[in-house]
Amino acid sequence: MADRAAEAGNFLNGTDWRGARREMLAGDASNRRYERVFHPQTGQSAVLMDADPDRGEDVRPFTAIARHLSAQGLSAPRILAEDTARGFLLLEDLGDALFARVVLSDPGLEQTLYAAATDVLGALHRAPLPAGLVPYDPPVMTRMAALAHDWYLRGAIGPDPAAKDTFSAAFEPVLAQISDGAKVLIQRDYHAENLLWLPERDGVARVGLLDFQDAMAGHRAYDLMSLSQDARRDVPPEIEAAMIARYVRDNDMDPTAFEAAYAILGTQRNLRILGVFARLSLHFGKPHYIDLIPRVWDHLIRDLDHPALTPVRAMVVNALPEPDGPILQRLKDQCGTVPTP
């Protein structure tokens, strides 16, 4: 880590920010690390991203998507300096006004924030796809959903390969029903802790965008569902319904088809998150993610109630245990002890 810190200093010394003061910022669930740096002459701040290639990180998807988003008039951080080989980026500092924090301090803004974030998606989805995006297609989505069996089920009561295989065989055709439409860029982690409120800007630029480097080409309902079925905070049902209606109206969608796709994609995402959060505790030693699982489960059960999920509902609820107190404790008790399957 000390060597990496020295490398970061060398990177900054090769820019106009030589001698900048550095402060650690909170990281995310990845291996990326962030610092806020202050220009020694002007005091202006920027954000240093440290994405070590030796730990599997690659900044090139981030820079490509950031430039695409900026070209659409959206507020992705401007790239001030970069060293893609060593995994360092110096980024525009968009501040600390994360949606989740703003709503806590001013609940009256919640509807405004979510409407602005919904409008960003409409603007982005009207733009052409950037070259090279990998499709988030039914086989990939099915494998990701099966993480719930690989990790959540495994940690809760033990592995059941037959249940996973049965689920996968039934779920992929459900996903295939919504895979024929036009694809859009999906950011895949579009939620209140990755969005910043920039009220001094205009229109869709009022929403600062973070954590989009895993973008893929997928269904236009995906990011709206990610926004409204937030694993980290409770979005009021009336706001979720209003945002679906807003997106459908403003983008000329068929409401019945859109809501079915929304529930199917919600099932896929929430299953994936169950697996990811369990893995973060069981394998990576981060037990606090277990505390978020009951909310994810509630989203999942609500999505499964849609008629489009009838082919898989019973097999999901019969195979995966409800995350009650003993199940959650069992997942925490195994923190950091489970190898990769």
TrEMBL record:
Transmembrane segments: none annotated. It comes from the Bacteria. This is Aminoglycoside phosphotransferase domain-containing protein. InterPro entries: Aminoglycoside_PTrfase, Kinase-like_dom_sf. It comes from Lutimaribacter pacificus. Residues 25-253 form the Aminoglycoside phosphotransferase domain.
